[in-house]
Write a structure and sequence with these properties.
The complex is a heterodimer of chains A (159) and B (64). By secondary structure, chain A is α/β, with parallel strands linked by helices. Chain A has eight helices and five strands. In chain A, 55% of the residues lie in helices and 11% in strands. Chain B has one domain. Chain B has helices at residues 10-21, 28-61.
Chain lengths: 159, 64
């Protein structure tokens, strides 16, 4: 089956790296902007392709920064998704998520990626529960304990 | 800090002044700042909750 194309922002790459789970990204064909690549500061994420923004894309990113007050990295990722015709936008940033929705992209974050990887058999139920817990305890993702518990409950219910 | 104009009902002003009088805040501005901070934080948590719920639906049951 063809892998789904996705553009990723910095957040999911770093958060999944922090919990040793970047391999879950292999369920997608992930591309990132050069700006997002520079934000990774040398952290290697296997399989991720870097695609520079065109001049038009850079102008679009600058406009998104001005209009919505989001960071340039997030704006460049959104502009890249728009210009590549890719709907799936991976982000853990709540502001970027709202902007992406407004622009008819489909934003999802680290939690969604872990659950999708579980559904596709990359992680077992036991492994995904552990990784979801680690999102709270080992990663820099902003998340609450209640949401971790709620997610685990949903995983346990999944047949 | 910047001043912003805001209108409050007499009831809210009385209640606000009560909080200051009881010593919870040193003045009206401090109380209003705290209320706005709490509002922003609550909204952020609501957005986060919505985002995680969407991720759960998509991750476990989404079509694409």
């Amino acid at each position: 089956m063809a892998r789904i194309k996705a553009v990723s922002n910095f957040g999911p790459l770093i958060h999944l790296h922090e919990i040793d789970c970047v391999e879950t990204l292999k369920i997608f064909d992930v591309i990132i902007s050069s700006k997002v690549k520079s934000e990774l500061r040398g952290i290697e994420v296997p399989g991720v392709k870097i695609q520079p923004l065109t001049e038009k894309g850079k102008n679009r990113a600058a406009m998104l920064v001005r209009k919505y007050g989001i960071e340039l990295g997030e704006a460049s990722a959104i502009a890249l998704a728009e210009h590549s015709g890719i709907k799936l936008f991976l982000t853990d940033d709540l502001d970027a998520r709202l902007v992406a929705k407004r622009l008819n992209l489909e934003p999802h974050g680290s939690m969604g990626i872990l659950l999708r990887a579980f559904r596709e058999g990359i992680l077992t139920k036991k492994e995904v529960v552990k990784k979801v817990e680690e999102l709270e305890t080992k990663s820099s993702l902003f998340i609450t304990h209640d949401l971790i518990k709620k997610t685990i409950k949903e995983i346990e219910r999944y047949k | 800090m910047e001043s912003i104009p805001a209108k409050l009902t007499p009831k809210l002003i009385t209640e606000l002044d009560e909080l200051v009088k009881e010593g919870w805040y040193s003045n009206r501005s401090e109380a209003i700042r705290d209320a706005v901070r709490e509002l922003v934080e609550r909204k952020k948590l609501e957005l986060l909750e919505e985002a995680i719920e969407e991720d759960i639906r998509w991750g476990l049951y989404g079509k694409d």
